[in-house]
Hints:
By secondary structure, the protein is of the alpha+beta class.
Amino acid sequence: MTVTLYSAPVSPYGNIAEVALRMLGIEYKYVPTSPHGKEPDFQRASPLGRLPAVDDNGFTISDSDAVATYFDWKVNNNGPQSLYGGDPETRSKVIFISKYAQTDGRIISVGVMGLMLRGITDKPTVDKAIAKAQAVLKVLDRLVQDNGHFVGSTYTMADIAVFCQVLSFITGGGSIDAYPRLSAFYNKARETSVFKETHDRSLASMKKITAAMARKKNRL
């Protein structure tokens, strides 16, 4: 199987797709790509120019959920080992939390990190974004089960989606120290092999970006 993943280290949605591929045991080639990139292969895989996108031996699809669903079905055939759960109750809960993390969760990822990437640092704007993020973080903190997962007793798409959004929030300078259950979940997951590579690459990439922004600012 020749799978190419077009993504960016600081893209929470690209990271969701990558962790899902890794959890499913899919070997893939990682191609760093910018949203709306002009590379012909990426444009074929993602007509809307969005990340992530994959090319699986000529079959192309974009969107984190679409990518995860496609490969999960190929590997697990919608069976009990599915990343979405093996029964109706589990699947519905996984979809609910995953969807919440990827919609409302944009506030804690793109909202806060986006300000940093655009160089917006004025306190009122940053404080407003963080206040919105805190409302979502409180919900996620309540949703963590006593066993440290969001649904069931293994990592599902719910865990993957939450982790990657929180990763972007932290990468953008946010803190989850005030949310003990969410912090415990995140700290354990980031040391797990399926999450660690994505976690480390995202942080390293943001360090390079902020260093480049600082150099540019100093030249002005």
